[in-house]
Amino acid sequence: MRRRQLITLGTALVAATALTLTGCGRSDTGKDDKAKDVDAGAAKGEITVWAMGGEGDNLPKLAADFEKANPGTKIKVTAIPWSAAHDKLAGAIAADKTPDISLVGTTWMAEFAKTGALDPVPTLVDKAKFYPASVEPMTVNNQMYAVPWYVDVRALFGNSKVLSKAGVTKAPETWEELKAAAKAAQTKGGAKWGLFIPPGGLGSGQVLLPLIWQQGGDIMDAGRKKFTLDTPETVKALTYYKSFFEEKIAPKAFAEGDPERWFTKNELGYNLNGPFMVSQFAKLGGAGFEKEFAVSMVPGAAKRTSFAGGAGLAVFKSAKNRDASWKFVNWLTDAKVQSKWYDIQKDLPSVPAAWESGPLKDNPNNAAFGKQMTDAKAPPAIQTFEQVNTMIESTVEKVVKAGLSPADAAKEMQKKADAIGTGN
């Protein structure tokens, strides 16, 4: 479930324990849930934290600085695999045996917030310091229940050698420019494929949704009560998506590792991917390849919106050391601390101020992701998003591979989304 696979975390596990959570006896959130103040002074005592993946392994290195600044404080970190995290958190909430703090995937927020187990974010935390796109998935019923710790966003990777040979001199900014440049990568640049995007299935939702958003559309209404998938914006997005496969610019079939291999072997013009691939492409391409690709914002229509994700830090109402926990969470989102965390873990900071110095500013390929975060959007914070997204991705596959028309696909997605519901 790590972001290197998908930036929406917890795909397969949400449905498995939804019934457990809705029956745990806590009240629904959003009606009378109000943030409480945090006492002044230094933090003290033990703070228990659950963190997943590399964050769980590396957080103790950073936490040592907090312990030095707050004598008498001990941060106890338990590392948990992403694959087990959702069920473990769900069980802890149901049994009222949670840690003080846990890392929470963005697409889990609505589900866990509805249990009433999460402590609303206090005024100690300045919500204005974060990228707006990182705050959105942490907010349920207008109440913020976790603090964005790291962000993830998709941007456009271009193979400089292929594109130079093709005569492409600047990064595409519009849908039309992307298609023209991708075609040129094939016809003039010697690439096998102009662009890689998923031919439906896993990951295709992260491409399709931004195409809808870029036109000013959305998949739900502003109140997050109704789905709005059967719209002209969805039809236009699906039509554009499908055209890359109809015109044989993008492959309908691929094996695991093919897109990365094609890109590093100069057989692919463009690849939509996440920030973790900056270092991965440099490594896979061998000595000097880090200078043979460039990252830019995704091309767009009226806007250049991309898909944002990441994870947040939540404090539980049952926390034994609640005030100290919030002080630790607030410290973790300080700009200087986030910069140091990037050095340790390579997680992208959720605070724009952390991008103003060091490798995030100096490396243009890293800096491109910070720029993209200024025009990024997270999926709606509803309990059933994973189910809806899986349905959308399977429908995209029908459009690409089975000939389903974009108009019929939009109607099918609307009907199925309505049947799934919001879970709220």
UniProtKB/TrEMBL annotation:
InterPro entries: SBP
GO CC annotation: ATP-binding cassette (ABC) transporter complex, substrate-binding subunit-containing
Residues of the signal peptide: 1-20
Keywords (A to Z) from UniProt: Signal, Transport
Domain of life: Bacteria
Biological process (GO), any one: maltose transport
Any GO MF annotation of the entry: maltose binding
Gene3D superfamilies with a match to the protein in the record: Periplasmic binding protein-like II (3.40.190.10)
Similarity section: Belongs to the bacterial solute-binding protein 1 family.
Protein name as annotated: Sugar ABC transporter substrate-binding protein
Biological source species: Streptomyces finlayi
